[in-house]
Amino acid sequence: MTNKMKLTRRQQDIYDYLHNNAERFAHPPTYDELCQELGLSSRGSLHKHIQALIDAGLVEPMEGRQGIRLVEWTQADEGIPHLGTIAAGRPIQAIPQPEFLPVPDFLLRQHPCYALTVKGESMIEAGIMDGDLVVIEQRDTARNGEIVVALINNEEATLKRLLNNNDGSITLIPENNTMKAMTFEAEQVQIQGILVSLLRRY
Amino acid sequence: MTNKMKLTRRQQDIYDYLHNNAERFAHPPTYDELCQELGLSSRGSLHKHIQALIDAGLVEPMEGRQGIRLVEWTQADEGIPHLGTIAAGRPIQAIPQPEFLPVPDFLLRQHPCYALTVKGESMIEAGIMDGDLVVIEQRDTARNGEIVVALINNEEATLKRLLNNNDGSITLIPENNTMKAMTFEAEQVQIQGILVSLLRRY
DNA sequence: TATCTAGTTCTCTTTTTGTTCTCTATTGTG
DNA sequence: CACAATAGAGAACAAAAAGAGAACTAGATA
Questions:
Q1: How far is CA A133 from CA A75, A162, B76, B195, in A?
Q2: CA-based nearest residue to A91, from A140, A153, A28
Q3: Which of A175, B7, B95, B147 reaches 20 to 30 Å from B28, CA-CA?
Q4: Which chain A residues are closer than 8 Å to B64 by Cβ?
């Protein structure tokens, strides 16, 4: 449905404006407000452009209620934020101003995702190397055997394979036979996401 | 149509400019904008050059001939073809109708690329697992240490690390300590591309 | 009810942009 | 030298894009 129609110059401008100022409008803006912001004096002219954006699937009219509009966007169009570096035994080292990576649909999930750079070799036998970029789906639960981003004791973040033990404890397994699995109480471990895909540049 | 004639000096200039500054133009540039950038004062003159580039198939007019611009054709827009499966010791198993994968810029190179699915574990210690998708830059030469798609005796295709020996022979090294490196005469080995990036879904 | 507001539809004009044309200057070639 | 190929300037034109402004519609409101 993402009909990538080509926009005219002004249509792009207006879309960019809506996109960049989405937060500024508590309630979706009216045509008159937009006209003022964009320096137009005719609602009719604006309407023509908005209509084009609607046809292109970039914008949706507000449901039923008239008076207003709303913009929609997806991660596939926009890219996912690259939040920083994850190294076993350290907190995630955040990038001050996360940049957005364009990642194709087929490497994402429905739920929101973010990207991290892997530091270290703790998952090397799972084919995850130092410097790889991993795409993480934001979640606070995970199933057995999934590779997760886990926060331990609210201090250190790590990428490991998850094992939920019968007694309620949690074991985090590195995929590196020089390293040992570690077991924690459920309260000590907080799941921050699960691994959904991996990107590597040579 | 695709009149593959050689370009004049200025045509090449203009093509190079478009090529190098493609990123700078949020929307495809208008003729007036290009004139300014290129130091021309006549759209008519520009038009003659652009027309030559279109004839040469290097540039496409914006569809629908809207009051706008020309676009360079890049693989980032269209995606790269997924040609099939590469398994050590077999020819590449081609997909009848290759599908196109949208792959973000930063995982590509300037030169044409294609994607293959990796079958087998011969490169597992390089972090390349069974089922991974590799992006290959189409090339017929490679440097020492690069991971290449090599065709051996015009029969079997394989993904290995390349070693050019002093005596002119070529050694292909698997990254799997249960497998042995193999050495061939230069004539037996044909480079079909080099590894530029890797994608994996979980 | 009358009135106001905000989206829609319409006609019209202006501006922008690609195209086509002619004319001129420069350069290289036989 | 003549001649062709390349390069640019500038004018004129048609169509697309953008905008103005008025009239109309349907809800909301008083």
A1: 17, 20, 19, 17
A2: A153
A3: B7
A4: 6
Strand C positions closer than 7 A to protein CB: 5-11, 16-22
Would you tell me how many other CB atoms lie within 10 Å of the CB of residue B50?
22
Tokens standing for B58?
A: 């290097």
Q: Protein B67 CA to nucleic acid C21 C1', in Å?
A: 20
Backbone conformation region of residue B120, classed left if phi is above 0, alpha if psi is from -120 to 50, else beta? left
What residues of chain B lie within 8 A of the CB of A4, using their CB? Answer: none
State if pTM tops 0.85. Answer: no
Residue B22: CA atoms inside 13 Å, Cβ hemisphere, count? Answer: 15
Q: Are A143 and A111 in contact (CB under 8 A)?
A: no
Q: Which residues contact B97 (CB under 8 A, 6 or more apart)?
A: none
Any chain A CB within 8 A of the CB of B102? yes
Residue type, B83: L
- Note the pLDDT tens digit of each residue in B8-44: 899 999 999 988 887 778 788 899 999 999 999 999 9
Mapping DSSP onto H, E and C, the string for chain A reads CCCCCCCCHHHHHHHHHHHHCHHHCCCCCCHHHHHHHHCCCCHHHHHHHHHHHHHCCCEEECCCCCCCEEECCCHHHHCEEEEEEEECCECCEEEEEEEEECCCHHHCCCCCEEEEEEECCCCHHHCCCCCCEEEEECCCCCCCCCEEEEEECCCEEEEEEEEECCCCCEEEECCCCCCCCEEECHHHEEEEEEEEEEEEEC
Task: Check CB contact under 8 Å for A102 and B105.
Answer: yes
Q: How many CB atoms lie within 10 A of CB B142?
A: 21
Q: Which of helix, strand or coil describes residue B157?
A: strand
